[in-house]
Amino acid sequence: MTLLQAGPAKAARPRRSPLGWLREHIVLIAGLAALAYLLIPNVVVVVLSFNRPAGRFNYSWNEFSVNAWTDPCSVAGLCEALGLSLRIAVLSTLAAVVLGTLAAFALTRHRFRGRGGTNVLIFFPMATPEVVMGSSLLALFVNAAIVPLGFWTILIAHIMFLLSYVIVTVKARLAVLDPRLEEAAMDLYADERTTFWRVTFPLALPGIVAAALLAFALSFDDFIITNFNAGSEVTFPMFVWGAAQRGMPPQVNVIGTMMFVAALAAVIIGQFAGRRRRMR
Amino acid sequence: MSDPISVAGDGALRLVSLYKRFGPVAAVDGIDLTIPSGSFFALLGPSGCGKTTTLRMVAGLEEPTSGRILIGDVDLAGQKPYRRPVNTVFQNYALFPHLDVFQNVAFGLRRRGVRDVAAQVEQMLAMVELSGYEGRRPAQLSGGQQQRVAVARALINNPSVLLLDEPLGALDLKLRRQMQLELKRIQADVGTTFVHVTHDQEEAMTMADTVAVMNSGRIEQLGSPVELYERPRTTFVANFLGQSNLIDGTVESRDGDLAIVAVPGGRLAVHMDRMPDTDQVHVGVRPEKLNLTPADQVSGTASQRNRLAAVVTESRFIGVSTEYAVRTDAGLQLTAFVQNAGRHQPMAPGAEVEVSWDPAHTFALDVRQAADAGLDPAGAAL
Amino acid sequence: MSAPTAQPPGLVHPGLPTPPPPPPRLRSRRLPYLLLLPALAWLAIFFVVPTITLFSTSLQTGSIYEGYALTFSFSNYLDAWSRFWPQMLRSLLYAGAATVLALLIAYPLAYTMAFKAGRWRNVLLILVIAPFFTSFLIRTLAWKTILADNGIVVEVLNALRITDVLSAIGLTTDDRILATPLAVITGLTYNFLPFMILPLYATLERLDVRLIEAASDLYASPFAAFRKITLPLSMPGLVAGTLLTFIPACGDYINAQLLGSMPATAMIGNVIDAQFLRVLAYPTAAALSFTLMVGVVAIVSMYVRRAGTERLL
Is residue B124 scored above 60 in pLDDT? Predict the structure, then answer.
């Protein structure tokens, strides 16, 4: 690349050709295209929830109708499956967050033998294909025959694979926590317990909340591992899977849209709450 | 809720045979110190000399390997930080980001069970000139403001000793000078013992009543700023505080209250109370004590001054003064600061001069001490 | 005020004995293990043990009717591989293609979010994460609508003759996209895109912009700066994203089932699913599953060896 000679002050920038503008903004355009790629299916889901399908499967647009919205639970088994998924998500999130947060503290705050090995062990469930985890758990449950396949096996499975995600998320938050803050608290007459509850925990909370949200989403949406270990229970993803075989009603799209809106709302509210607190 | 132990007696802070080892390395290598109650004390030294470690041991954030820490008659050994009547102003302030200024300042009081904190907080914020900032978060404050909140947060607890760990390091020069005066004023008002750790010798000398110069885990010298500056007892102190010219020489005679030292190119007189016992010494004199007289203006009268003939090799105009580098006829390199009081003629490199000074301004140190102690490899002060 | 004590350094204060060092704090030595125990126990029982059980199942012979016996028949593996190697290969191919595509799509987005977003960064982050919260099955099914045989996408691609090119490579058949390998790859890419975006974004966000400015100052063109500075420094995120995409994609069977056509696009996940839940040939299924697991362990071990155990996210 030739160097420009240092000369008189730069003349006004030459008019850029459309091609030049393209080249300058290529990354931005590609990025936004990627975003569109990510979001278009969501848009399709929302649009099709207002559809009255021609046949059993709600895959192509037929005519506009709000029937599905007025009567979401009219499809047999849909709302029961939804309820089951919600219950499992809440319980497994609770358990995973408690166990995972404790573990995250141990891994960030203390040096101990086996810390490296533990990190590797935690990484595995995130990287292992769900088929392997689901099938091996099934093998365990069948062989051990202690707990019948159903609600409890689903719960156990969910807690298992959620742990890694919770630990990683909380660890990330704890890593940026300044240890001097805890020293300052002790310097100001707070004993270890008070320091934890008044300084460490409030500052770790955003990470814990993020971990809880992530865990809830992962649990609610899990299919493969659940499918292997559900026995005769039907969670919402399992219902959708069956519907893909039997017949896909638009009510499914309605639930999907509601989930999307609820998630967006939760995240936006979370952002605002954070900003309000910082401004006060 | 924790109650700090109460301290009776004269409240002086005493460090006795304090050691701190990290593996084979001794960060603090035997410190003995008594800091009188109510004084402004500075621990001065380059990075890594152990001053911060010493401070943290007093605060209770580090455990000494051996030694004792006492306030008055009370031994603080083994006490957790929250039981010690000691508070710290941290280097990066360590303000709690999730609490506002009011809650930060009130933190220590609340932990001790004090219910009605509002009045005290207001008073303390007024003292650091931050009234009206109660509702702000630390992230919304400037560096100087954060620093003042940190001081308020510590002082409000009326500790027996206030520890300051290089609190002004992150501030720009003007703000730093301002805060130095502020802290001095606050200490005078409140009367608490301040222990201020810093690597900035100017800061230590302007603020402290007493300064301890630390090097490699030990105290090199302890005294008032004037004493340390005019009467350094080690080459480290001579070089670390201000600048010094050091000339190697052999003691010729000790006669009454004056000693004569033979140096290359002449003989220098040193007062006996500034002489070490050895016969081989570094003769020292501060650059600002040197007079430069052009060779052709030297009066022949033998006054009682130390003199050496030299040639100017460099001259730098600094504004307040002119800095001269001269080389004596015998090859010694000396530095001289001549104040820009409008009286002297600037001298160009090559000019022949006589360097002279009052023997009372001369000090001498054992030659076995390293002449470059307290300087960084490039020759500047550490 | 009494005069400050001045002592030459090193002199021990006479008369005071040195006390013994304080006792070590027992609590803090056992604490990390206690904190770690519940989570670790859970993972040990419900991840490690099942893997072992899986291995043992893979060495058994028998049937669901007669019962199973542990006979250490490693022939199960040979049997399974010889029967299902096409699906295994296909899984690697599809997952590989999906990973590469995901990388190409995710990198610009992560880059935009990290460097060019400014005030919009949080909005973008929300938009990337929010779809996550909708059932991925429903979203995947939406591709059936997007790639429908008479939908816009297919019509446009047909008109531009792109489908002819794709058919030639074997990615599509006739003039359709659904029920072809391309649809499966598209679905895979789509599903695992967030797992590629987020680690990349996390690493890029931590990049010091001044490094790129320094490169510019040293005569590097924007592309050269990217190649020499940004790309190497984003490697940790890139590798993490690749791992979190490729490995789960290998074992996926949802996309093949919903968007592909059985048995033409069957992946190893479909086989395992079928063998476990329908054919009930547990040893075979376990053998395939464990093979997949070993592959995962191998790849992760290589990664750990290069990156160290603390950098695993």
Answer: yes
Residue A49 located in a structural domain: no
Dig out the tokens for C79 from the structure: 């049997």
C-alpha A18/C-alpha C33 separation (Å) is: 62
Asked if A199 reaches chain B (Cβ–Cβ under 8 Å), the answer is yes
For residues A25 and B85, what is the distance between their CA atoms, to the nearest angstrom? 61
- Mean pLDDT across the stretch A101-111? 87
Instruction: Put the strands of the sheet holding B306-317 in their side by side order.
Output: B291-294, B352-357, B306-317, B321-328, B333-339
Res. C308 pLDDT band, cuts 50 70 90: low
What rounded mean pLDDT belongs to chain B? 89
Q: Do B30 and C10 make contact, defined as CB atoms within 8 angstroms?
A: yes
* SS3 (DSSP) at A248: coil
∠ Cα C2 C7 C11 (to 5°): 135
Separation of alpha carbons B325 and B337, rounded Å: 9
> pTM of the prediction?
0.79
pLDDT band at A234 (very low <50, low <70, confident <90, very high): very high
CB-CB under 8 Å, B97 with A187: no
Angle, nearest 10°, between helix axes C136-146 and A236-246? 30
The token duo for C189 is 């890419």
pLDDT digit string, tens, across residues B36-90: 999 999 999 998 899 999 999 999 999 999 999 999 888 988 889 999 999 999 9
Q: Find which of A187, A197, A208 to mutate to test the B interface (most B CBs within 10 Å of its CB).
A: A187
Cα of C84 to nearest chain B Cα, Å = 58
User: By the CB < 8 Å criterion, does C2 face chain B?
Assistant: yes
Q: Residue A232 domain-assigned? A: yes
Segment (H or E) for A219: helix A201-221
Q: Which site among A189, A193, A200, A277 would you substitute to test the B interface, given the most B Cβ atoms closer than 10 Å to its Cβ?
A: A189
Chains that touch A (3 or more CB pairs under 8 A): B, C
Strands C60-63 and C67-70: antiparallel
Structure tokens given for B221: 């010298």
Q: Which residues of C touch B78 (CB under 8 A)?
A: 22
A186 touches chain B (CB under 8 A): yes
Percent of chain A with pLDDT over 90: 34
CB contact at 8 A, B79 and A166: no
Specify the amino acid at residue C148. A
Name which of B17, B29, B222 is nearest C6 (Cβ-Cβ).
B222
Read off the pLDDT of each residue in A82-91 and give the average, rounded to a whole number.
Answer: 95
pLDDT: which is higher, B11 or C258: C258
In a domain, residue A215? The reply is: yes
Chain A residues in contact with C113 (beta carbon < 8 A): 31
Res A38 pLDDT > 60 = yes
> Domains of chain B, with CATH numbers?
13-230 (3.40.50.300), 235-366 (2.40.50.100)
Check CB contact under 8 Å for A268 and C250.
no
Structural contact between residues A134 and C63, judged by C-beta atoms closer than 8 angstroms:
no
Q: Give the range of the structural domain holding residue A163, as residue numbers without chain letter.
A: 76-248
Residue A151 lies in a domain: yes
Domain C86-307: assigned CATH number? 1.10.3720.10
Number of domains in chain A: 1
pLDDT reported for residue A251: 87
CA-nearest of A275, C66, C174, C217 to B137 is A275
- CB spacing of C4 vs B38 below 8 angstroms: no
- We report the CATH number of the domain holding residue A94 as 1.10.3720.10
Q: Reduced to 3 states, what is the DSSP secondary structure of residue B308?
A: strand
DSSP 3-state of C10 = coil
Q: Please, are residues C53 and A136 in contact by the beta-carbon 8 Å criterion?
A: yes
Q: Is the pLDDT of residue C195 over 80?
A: yes
Measured distance between the N- and C-terminal CA atoms of chain C, rounded to whole angstroms: 58
Nearest-by-CA chain A residue for B158: A188
